[in-house]
Structures are given as C-alpha cells and as structure tokens.
Specification:
- There is one protein chain.
- This protein has one domain.
- It has six helices and two strands, in the order H-H-H-H-H-E-H-E.
- It has a two-stranded antiparallel sheet with strand order 1-2.
- Helix 2 runs antiparallel to helix 3.
- The two termini are about 25 Å apart.
Length: about 110
C-alpha cells in the first residue's frame, strides 16, 4: 500500500475516496492521512521532517473543525498535495446551469 501511495495522484485518490464514503469512520481519517504522510514524506522530506509532520497530524486532528480544515490544507501542501472542493456530479446534474463549475482550493 505504501509503495502505491508514493504516487501523488494515487495518494490524492486514496484521500478523496475516504471523503466520498457515505458514512466514513472518523477514526480512519488518521490512518488514511498517516499512510499518505509516510509514503510521500519519504520522497519529499527528511526522516526527521516526516516524523515532525506525523506529529503535526495528531495536533491537527485534535483542533476545532474550523481551524483543522485550514491547517489540513497546509499539511497536505507540505506533501505536494492540495485540498480541493468541487461540485459533486449529482448536484451539478440537478443544477439549472450544468456547464457551470465551482472549485475552491485551500
């Protein structure tokens, strides 16, 4: 698993799949993000920085949600990823203007 997560596109898809689950288990978020940090940290950071980054994950997940979302964006950026919000296909299909798309990146 960690070998596959060394590919940034695969890692991004792995995180995205977690968030797209109908009823994701909150405890699994830590596992998903730490797996990605271990895989991408090996490529993008020293062992010491990877360890510190994993410690930041613990801190990040204990924050209030409003703070955590912004800090998650910064945390992912350090791994070469970005946090993006897009219109889901179901909502876009129901939209009066299906060619319009909104995207927010943190």
């Amino acid at each position: 698993m960690i070998l596959r997560l060394r590919n940034q596109s695969y890692a991004a898809g792995y995180i995205e799949a977690f968030f797209e689950e109908k009823n994701p288990e909150p405890e699994l978020l830590h596992l998903v993000l730490s797996n990605v940090a271990k895989a991408l940290g090996e490529q993008n950071m020293s062992l010491e920085k990877t360890t510190v980054h994993l410690e930041k994950l613990e801190e990040l997940l204990s924050q209030r949600p409003s703070e955590a979302i912004y800090n998650l964006g910064n945390w992912l950026n350090a791994l070469g990823l970005k946090l993006t919000v897009t219109v889901c296909e179901e909502a876009q299909d129901k939209s009066a203007n299906p060619t319009s798309s909104s995207q927010l990146t943190v």
